[in-house]
Give the backbone structure.
Amino acid sequence: MIKDANVIFTFTIKIFFTTIMFLSILNAELFDYKIVPSSLGGRNYMNVKILDSKEIRFGKSGGVAFSEISDLAYKDNKLFTLGDKGVLYELNINLRNDKINELDLTNATPLKAQNDQKLDKVHRDAEGLAFMGENLLVSFEREHRIDLYSLNAKKIKNIKINKRLENKDDYQSENKGLEAVAYNEKYGVLTAPEAPLKSKITHTIYSQRAKWKFKADGVIKALEFIDENNLLVLIRDSNKATKKMITVLVRVNLEKCQKDKCESDLLTKMDETDGWNIYNFEGLCKVGENRFLMISDDDEDFSQKTILTLFEITN
């Protein structure tokens, strides 16, 4: 009896410390991070208000690092993020009172094909992420495509894309592929190459059968619907004089386009030259009415940071 009690006690202790270690790995360290220049004297700039910004750090989960985050998707206090190496991360997030209060990593799973095999290096360059119903759309570079995945990271099916996007030789490079994806019931699945196709001089957003063009410098990093007709576009550019990074947010009203030509509404322009403390923002998702998160890609470089920023569109 005593021996059995000792075995149970030892087992309980092991479980306790294993659980503590597991939780310590999954709980994010959140550090306040100021991206707005002091010269602005506030958090509002043009049509955007920065509500909160955090540097986030995780340990490894199951041997998988939280790194190179390329996009975000949000539903019911769950945040899904996508890594460049084809890893889907699931997190619990607390956004109470317009603050990023808590962030807990609950799962990190490599994307898998329908045969349950992990994607190889050529096929795993995942860039865009968006909910479609209860599943997730993932867009890819190099092997330019969009696939539908379950929340446990298993492929469900291919998504048919616009014929104009099917020829890989039409892209400016294999690394300028389908960087972004968005979805709503009215327009269906939307995507955009990071840079215009070789024969184009304007950015183009594509659905399966339609397209919308708008003029903008830089490269498209993410798409997200603001409402039924308005699309938020995250663009990365560089200052021609200083070579420093610029993050741009523009709004495109798809319903008001003339034929396939659209006007873009500049919401904000964050230029490092002007004191914006920004990194390589790549991901975007809606978390409430006129409220969005965007996240930076640390490029798997210890000198860079993963920054999560909560902002509001004010007009």
